[in-house]
Design goal:
Oligomer: single chain
Strand order of the largest sheet: 3-2-1-4-8
Bound molecules: zinc ion
Number of domains: 2
Strand content: 15-25%
Largest sheet: 5 strands, mixed
Order of helices and strands: EEEHEEEEHEHEEEHHHHEHEH
Number of strands: 13
Structural class: alpha/beta
Distance between the termini: 28 Å
Shape: globular
Amino acid sequence: MTDSPGYLALDVGGTKTIGAVVGTGGEVLASARVPTPTGHGSEEVFEACVFALEAARSETPVSAIGLGVGCGGPMKWPSGDVSPLNIPDWRDFPLRDRLADRLEVPVRVHNDAICLTIGEHLLGGGRGLNNVLGMVVSTGVGGGIVADGQLLTGASGNAGHIGHVVVDPTGPKCSCGGRGCLEAVARGPAVVGWALAQGWQSVDPAGESLAASAREGDPIARAAFQRCGNAVGTAVASVAALLDLEAVTIGGGLSRAGDLLLPAVYEGFERHAGLEFLSQCRVLLAGEDAGLVGAAALFLAQHRYWSEGY
Ligand SMILES: [Zn+2]
């Protein structure tokens, strides 16, 4: 019996890497998660990717049509040479060519936030809509934009960097060199850092424990999510006004604390989205598997914005 056709998907993050098998309808059939190695060189990270993919494929064998990869930016596109800010061991790492050589399948690599946007546009909360912003709120804050039914790529393939929309000109310094960018306020480590600076204490100062504290009613932890969500809502209102959006879908690590984050996002959005046409813009959480579905969607989607033949 031959294996049924499907896709492989890889979501390479700064702390974890997930390999998956995705069916032809965009459903995740199997997945395997491994920690992303840090400080051991580029090959260790690459082998972790291969291990995660092979572990998923051993669970659900599939005749792979292609492998879609979501990875942090910046990257050269569409060559798929990556230099993700959240993975210092990879600089100009030829991820697409290395994976294609090893796994002997066609490989497409794109920014993880772009992948999420495509997946949500195709199969998630943005399905059937023509004007959608997809966001990843995690170690960093990224985004992708579908406008009038087409993915916006911009001059260099980098359109959608909502993380560097300024929400507070007097706010904290940003890794881009600016000040008060959304990412500088709302990225996971910044939210935790702000809480610690206000006096929040934890043996495990990370996003999950901050969320647990907030759910227990800790006022500083609650304020930290409030501040993060308000900043996201503020930036989203600006982008929604600029692009006349129909939906915004939010994924990434912090979106797992959606019960804490979304009310504050709505509040920030409402405060700044005064124009009448913005009342139809929905803000919602992305699907849990959005990153993987989105990576596979690099093959699922028949958009004109990636070159064929690789
Ligand atoms: Zn910035």
